Amino acid sequence: MTEPSRSLGGLRSAFAPCVLLALGLGPAGVLHAQPQAPPSSVTLKPVRPGQAPPNPYTKKLIARGKLLVLSGGCNTCHTPWRLDPKLGVPAPDATRMLSGHPEGAPDPGGEVGPTDIALIGPTFTSFRLPFGTTYSLNLTPDIDTGTGSWTEKMFIDIFRKGRHLGGDGRPVYPPMPWSWIRYRSDQDLKAIFAYLRSIPPLRNLPPTEKIPPPVADAVIAMNDKIIALQKDPNVKLLAPQGGPPPPPALDLKPVVRGRAPKRTYPADMVTKGRLLVMAGDCNNCHTPWVYDPVLGAPAPDWTRMLSGHPEGAPDPQGKLGPEDNLLVGPTFTSFRLPFGVTYSKNLTPDIDTGSGGWTEEQFLAVFRKGRHTDGRTIVPPMPWDGIRNLPDADLRAIFAYLQSVPPIRCETPLPKVPPQALEMLERVNGIKLSGTAGPS
Predict the structure, then answer these.
(1) What pTM does this model have?
(2) What is the DSSP letter of 59?
(3) Exposed, middle or buried by CB within 10 Å (0-12, 13-18, 19+), for 411?
């Protein structure tokens, strides 16, 4: 199997809601929690309708685009979050669907640790990174502030060239997962654009990124390298010169090869599953990140592909602000939320620690029931509620691909989440399964 090229993915993963709990650390590191009132609401300007151009696309193409947007978790970062009265926790605000960072909304209020990847702010549309702060764009078809003035080619070129405005503008910054979405065909990208043209236009102008000019130049160079590596994983590229020093090296245990069951699937099914996994940026959270000297930034470590949180790897080191949503740890496989710390699972087909002990039907049930194969409630940031929009055939293809990757033995830790929070998350997941909450 060809190893994927190195790429700096985004933070797209549909980071699910924060349970509003006050946490303390008791004896032996046990988390205790008492439910409390939600933090003060972020005051946002009223929603303003915009003006959209005519939509020439067919209903069939729009429907395909809607499936890709919902299952791809675009609403997670491009739809501002608020306290959802049905869920009782923060979630994307459907009245502001895909309108990006609201004008005047706050930046993240906490601190990024020395080796942390990112801190996500109160509306889940602002992102503090080690080199600056970025914001989600308005994807609604408003002509003045959204995508209404873009052409279809300009939209596709964002993913083909890693730059805005048809490939000639400023670079696409993290957490936008353009490097994963570019695995999609032009026809799928056209379908996404068609769906974006069909939604209500909202007038909202997100701020420009707070990025120093030298960093912007470095990101342009990095994005160009990502494209080159995706075309040819063996291409020889030079490390950046004169940039900031790399973060402290992570002391990770060596990779241990695992045992996979003997399973065979049709080649076209595995190929389809690979596309869904790569374009769905599963590697963002399930493949540990390490510093890549060629890119000059952290990126997925393909020797540990899809093996989840490494045994003994650190938790996030920084601090959440009072209304922040999530802090992403050094390997992009540990996540600090207001109610505790969660970890990415091992998806490789290792029989003892990964997906090798699961059946295909158990894998489908994870997304149909919101529970792990052992019955535990799925906790954030796993975007199961977006992925569950995919048909069974797509989920079966994903499972087939996961059974084809190298098995790695890695026992990922259980989440450090108090029982009260798990009970609330189970209730939230039940409401999501009922289909009565969230953008549609």
Answers:
(1) 0.88
(2) H
(3) middle
Question: Hey, what are 36's tokens?
Answer: 């409390």
Helical (H) or strand (E) element with 288: none
| Token pair 């056209």 in the structure block, residue | 190
Burial of 359 from C-beta contacts in 10 A (0-12 / 13-18 / 19+): exposed
Burial class (CB in 10 A: 0-12, 13-18, 19+), 408: buried
**What is the amino acid identity at position 82?**
R
Dihedral angle sign, alpha carbons of residues 244, 326, 93, 57 = positive
Residue 243 sits at φ, ψ, to 5 deg, of: -85, 180
Q: Which are the contacts of 147, defined by CB distance < 8 A and separation ≥ 6?
A: 138, 139, 140, 141, 155, 193, 196, 197
Distance CA 119, CA 84 (A): 22
pLDDT tens digits, one per residue of 48-96: 999 999 999 999 999 999 999 999 989 999 999 998 888 888 889 999 9
